[in-house]
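Hey L., structure's done. Input below.
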Amino acid sequence: MKKFLLVELVVLISAFFILWASLIILKIVPDDIEINIISVEQEKNIGRLVFDSFYDESDIISNPTLDSAISKISQRLIFGVGKSDYIYQIFVVRDKEINAFALPGGYIIIFSGLIEFTENPTELASIIAHEIGHIELSHVRERLIKEIGLTTSFLILVNDPNIISEVGRIIISTIFDRQQESEADEYSMKLITKCNLDPHSIGVFFKRLMEGEKDYSFLSEFLNTHPSIEKRIKKSLEYKTPDGFQEDSLQIDWDKVKLSFK
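Output:
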């Protein structure tokens, strides 16, 4: 009897895995699927599983100087966000690529190459604010639904490392569309302004990226996954701050931060 039940369980799990793989490969998920098919709590659970898998495979950087800088930036931004369904956790990974991305549930990953390329902490704050925008505006959850929405419960139930790792790879590699990127930019500039930081920083950052593309071969991929860069730069540089706006710069020794992880 026990042997029979074990065989049935294996068959059931195999069937679910085949269904999951089919949905992922064939992407049989309608574009207009209801976002509530995945709750915020389910998103957090998936985010934790995916992050744990990512953490095990990555070189996470942590030192007092870097941690203090990330904490100061995140505290300023989180205060500006106000009430949220998410508890944001920001990690720095040792990787020369200039990139950052958001995982489900409030996890934000920053590559060390991005920090090295930024000229001041406000530029990094603008990029983090952009990623927060993707989360707060439900872009990350929409992407999650589009990729694995119909198999979410199975994913949480099985908790298979190989499946989790594959889901993480898909989530990380799937780009946001032009509208979502534009909305995240707008969110970033409003949040940065609310935090009394320079909202034009993200435009300055992107402008320098474009100018440096010929010198950094790995920038092409970043620019390809962030559409309409020229329009986004123009929109940022022309962003109007409210009357009486006064910048309160982050007091961080940025050169010291960069040296801390070399």
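Residues 4-20, 22-32, 214-221 have pLDDT under 50 and may be disordered. Residues 33-241+255-259 form one domain.

-- N.
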